[in-house]
Design goal:
Blueprint (H helix, E strand, L loop, with lengths): L7 H11 L7 H7 L4 E5 L2 E4 L4 E4 L2 H4 L8 H13 L12 H13 L4 E7 L2 H18 L7 E5 L8 H6 L3 H5 L8 E4 L4 H4 L6 H19 L4 E6 L15 H12 L2 E5 L13 H4 L6 E4 L11 E6 H10 L13 H16 L2 H21 L5 E7 L2 E6 L14 H12 L2 E2 L1 E3 L2 E4 L7 H18 L1
Parallel strand pairs: 3-13, 5-6, 5-7, 7-8, 8-9
Antiparallel strand pairs: 1-2, 2-3, 4-10, 9-10, 11-12, 12-15, 14-15
The protein binds pyridoxal-5'-phosphate (PLP).
The site of pyridoxal-5'-phosphate has 14 residues, from helix 6.
């Protein structure tokens, strides 16, 4: 059955009647009608009205290699024809997860050599939470099970991932969090730095909040600290350079495992395969998904460092954990082809040396002085733009989040897909963007800001 047999209105009616959307106010959606995206190519998506929209979000931070990659379609098709599914339970595997695990071990930091597959970032974080607690239990220290996380963190939507996350609205609807998870401030200088406080000092103060939480809980009770290298869904909150090295020092000092959530930052977005490499830190686990397949298939990979893996293998016996689709052969085939594209086309070097720095320059030059813009911040191909009512006082418009959503709507109308998180506009484009694509995006953002002003 092809969707082309249905009109846009018919599809909207079916969607409104039967489809419960993620993160959506359904009354609002029904009033507005869904935007139906029907196809995509390169950096563009197209809706059912035929509008061409430059996708500054790479779908949901995931289409790193861009749309329309025939090679990925071919990889999926070949695998579907040969072996559409078999599991990796009970002493079995299939070729592609074995090859992919080997490939990931080679691109990950040196001390990371094992991979546990799932289908989503949320699942991978559930796995990570169980694994770090299991590690300490196997080490004979089951009381070491508190995990420290941060306000505004997003680690996914399962109950465990939401418990790890630090989104107040999500916690209100949690109805029973996973216990022993504590939250501390995040390094969000734009709102939390004191007047006159240097970036460096603010980064150290934000890291100290983690140390204080460890000391308060008692280091013997703390299993791990988890954080996104750059908070994504929380508003592209980029920590000062002093933050992560200090977090590493604190984790080492108190023998607390370091868990990085690189579901957004992994696979090139920061100008290295992983942000752990950009920030020169050595996490015990790295959660990845999204860019691993450029979104062409659902797949996550929890990268597990040697310390945990050794205990799991040597002392673990059976780890009672896994998913039907762990190591799905089609998803892994697509991931292998996707990593090959990223490497062959030098997309990561391009982000680090060219498009990443250029995105920062172009946004600053193009909109940095706009009356609605309080701050532009970028790292690799991630950007956050703070929308303010008053640039000097950083006062916000009311109600919270409304102004940014108006800018976002104007941007989409003007042919640029962006997101708004509260009062922050966000960009996370495909790694295939060029300087020209960035210039087009900046022009469209400026036009959207002008309309909203
Ligand atoms: N972790 C981070 C940092 C994310 O940004 C996301 C999703 O946006 C997740 C985890 C959850 O991934 P998924 O939606 O695939 O479950």
């Amino acid at each position: 059955m092809s969707y082309q047999n249905f009109s846009r209105e018919q599809m909207q009616a079916m969607d409104a009647a039967h489809h419960l959307h993620p993160f959506t106010d359904h009354a609002d959606l029904r009033a507005a009608g869904s935007r139906i995206i029907t196809r995509a190519d390169g950096p563009y998506v197209y809706d059912a009205l035929g509008n061409e929209i430059l996708d500054a979000m790479a779908g949901l931070w995931c289409v790193n290699a861009g749309y329309g990659r025939k090679e990925l379609v071919d990889a999926a098709t070949a695998q579907l024809e040969e072996l559409p599914y078999y599991n990796s339970f009970f002493r079995c595997t299939t070729p592609t997860p074995a090859l992919l695990a080997d490939r990931l071990a080679r691109i990950a930091p040196d001390h990371i050599n094992q991979v546990f597959f799932g289908s989503s970032g949320s699942e991978a974080n559930d796995t990570a939470l169980r694994l770090v607690r299991h590690y300490w239990a196997l080490e004979g220290r089951p009381e070491k099970n508190i995990v420290i996380s941060r306000d505004w963190a997003y680690h996914g939507s399962t109950i465990a991932a939401t418990s790890l996350g630090g989104m107040a609205a999500m916690h209100e609807q949690l109805y029973g969090a996973v216990p022993n998870i504590r939250h501390v401030m995040c390094p969000y200088a734009f709102e939390l730095a004191e007047p006159g406080e240097s970036d460096r000092d603010f980064g150290l103060r934000a890291a100290k909040a983690v140390e204080d939480a460890i000391v308060e809980a008692g280091p013997d009770n703390v299993a791990a600290f988890i954080g996104e290298p750059i908070q994504g869904a929380g508003g592209v909150k980029i920590p000062p350079a002093s933050y992560w090295p200090e977090i590493q020092r604190i984790c080492d000092r108190y023998d607390v495992l370091l868990m990085l959530d690189e579901v957004i930052t992994g696979y090139g977005r920061t100008g290295e395969w992983f942000a752990a490499q950009s920030m020169d830190i050595a996490p015990d686990t790295i959660t990845t998904a999204k860019g691993l397949t450029s979104g062409y298939q659902p797949l996550s990979a929890l990268l597990v460092g040697d310390r945990i893996a050794k205990t799991l293998v040597d002392k673990g016996g059976e780890f009672y954990h896994g998913y039907t689709y762990s190591g799905h052969p089609v998803a892994c085939a697509v991931a292998l082809a996707n990593l090959e594209i990223i490497e062959r086309e030098g997309l990561i070097d391009r982000v680090r040396e060219d498009t990443g720095p250029y995105l920062g320059e172009a946004l600053t030059a193009g909109i940095g002085d706009h009356p609605l813009v309080g701050e532009v911040r970028t790292f690799g191909l991630l950007a956050g733009i703070e929308i303010v009512k008053d640039r000097d006082t950083r006062a916000r418009f009311e109600p919270e989040g409304h102004a940014a959503s108006v800018v976002r709507d104007h941007a989409i109308e003007g042919g640029l897909m962006m997101r708004a998180v509260m009062d922050t506009m966000i960009l996370s484009p495909p790694l295939i963007w060029t300087r020209e694509t960035i210039d087009t995006a900046v022009d469209r953002i400026r036009a959207a800001l002008d309309k909203a002003a």
